[in-house]
Design a protein that fits this description.
The protein is mainly α. It folds into two domains: 192 residues, Orthogonal Bundle (Clc chloride channel), CATH 1.10.3080; 196 residues, Clc chloride channel, CATH 1.10.3080.10. Helices cover 70% and strands 0% of the residues. The longest helix has 42 residues. The two termini are 40 Å apart.
């Protein structure tokens, strides 16, 4: 390859990164503002939760008549990365945006990562046609979309770039994708900064030295965080299979699910388990949670997404991990904020099989001083969470694959 061609391709990819970062970051900024707006409406008008079944029906009808090709969401991005077939339809972006805002407006329990990643992937893949890219370059484009969406919605560019690479790692990536993933992550991150949209800030004020005793505690809580991730993933898949099996007409699934959820929310008399749950996450860093809070959030989120409502799983995973860590502070001699922070990223690590990205995310959010505790919890949770994660189309190999194959040599369907 001559120098002129190399310079041309380098410039082309830098332009692509800039455009994806600009459009995905701007979309995430709008999404975050809109999400805060609908959340405030819901919190100030709790009676709106009784309209959750109607909201669910609207989502169901939208996807049934206009979104069957994109209903797989994040799994479609992973499938297209593994075996590129057709460009991601742009309609994925507005559909998941509308669906997620409806879910949060009326009281569903969901996150925002799935929405941002799908918006980023849909935007990014449009450049495949514009620049006439081949299948290998389309793989790079999809990584860039995932990276931009994740980095911009959470304000963690390093973790966003690594998450996009780690979540598809065993489908093979090239060095070009690695470099460009970081470039686009920062482009998207600074775009959100330009729009002056704020992210939630967390802090761990007290961090003990890592001793043998604290290492044992870290391993112990890491196992618990991994089991919580396993329960979250299994619950989400269980409700999704159950609704698909027993409710054949897809638009009725969120209608029925919304009715059940509205009644449950009314019966428990609190809204802390619906929506993103960010206030409860922040509170968990200073006040011990009830021992059952994380279990209720798992149930609500699995049921919401399984019924066909839209949104992500990651912020609910943060909720599950932070509240579990907070509750454990009553019996484990580690600072409450440290345990909440460890759980925050460790449950996410176990559910997505991405311990490196989650460790880096913890360092970005809580500071490098907590890195040893965060990294240890993420690694242990990764192994303890079992072979099934939240993305059923994700290819899982490496150490976890070898470990579970060793103990279950006859099971080829574990992953």
């Amino acid at each position: 390859m001559n120098l002129q061609k190399t310079l041309r391709l380098t410039l082309q990819w830098l332009v692509i990164c800039a455009l994806i970062g600009l459009f995905s970051g701007s979309a995430s900024a709008f999404f975050l503002v809109a999400l805060e707006w609908v959340t405030q409406i819901r919190e100030y008008h709790n009676g709106i939760i009784w309209l959750l079944p109607i909201g669910g029906l609207i989502i169901g009808l939208l996807y049934h008549y206009y979104g069957t090709s994109v209903v797989k969401g994040n799994n479609l991005l992973l499938e297209e990365y593994e075996n590129p077939q057709q460009p991601i339809p742009f309609k994925m972006a507005p559909l998941v945006l509308i669906g997620t805002l409806i879910t949060h407006l009326f009281g569903g329990s969901a996150g925002r990562e799935g929405t941002a990643v799908q918006i980023g992937g849909a935007i990014a893949d449009q450049f495949s046609k514009l620049f006439k890219l081949d299948k290998n370059d389309r793989k790079t484009i999809l990584i860039l979309g995932i990276s931009a969406g994740f980095a911009s919605v959470f304000g963690t560019p390093l973790a966003g770039a690594l998450f996009a690479l780690e979540v598809v790692y065993f489908s093979k990536i090239n060095i070009k994708s690695v470099v460009l993933s970081f470039v686009v992550a920062y482009a998207a991150y600074y775009t959100v900064e330009f729009w002056q949209v704020q992210h939630t800030h967390y802090s761990i004020p007290s961090i003990p030295e890592m001793s043998w005793t604290n290492l044992i505690w870290t391993i112990g809580v890491g196992i618990l965080f991994g089991l919580a991730a396993l329960l979250f993933s299994r619950t989400a898949h269980f409700w999704s299979r159950s609704f698909s099996k027993y409710v054949q007409y897809a638009p009725l699934r969120p209608l029925i699910g919304g009715t059940v959820l509205a009644i449950l929310i009314y019966c428990i008399g609190t809204t802390k388990y619906i929506g993103l749950g960010v206030p409860e996450i922040v509170k968990s860093f200073s006040t011990p949670n009830e021992s059952y809070d994380f279990l209720v959030k798992i149930l609500f989120t699995g049921f919401t997404l399984g019924a066909g409502f839209k949104g992500g799983e990651v912020t609910p995973l943060f909720f599950v991990g932070a509240t579990l860590g907070s509750a454990l502070s009553v019996v484990i001699p580690l600072p409450i904020a440290l345990l909440a922070g460890m759980g925050f990223v460790a449950v996410f690590s176990g559910a997505t099989h991405t311990p490196i990205a989650c460790t880096v995310m913890g360092i970005e959010l809580f500071g490098i001083e907590s890195g040893v505790f965060i990294g240890g919890a993420c690694l242990v949770a990764y192994f303890a969470s079992g072979p099934v994660g939240i993305y059923h189309s994700q290819i899982v190999k490496g150490p976890k694959y070898l470990l579970y194959q060793k103990f279950n040599p006859s099971r080829q369907d574990l992953f």
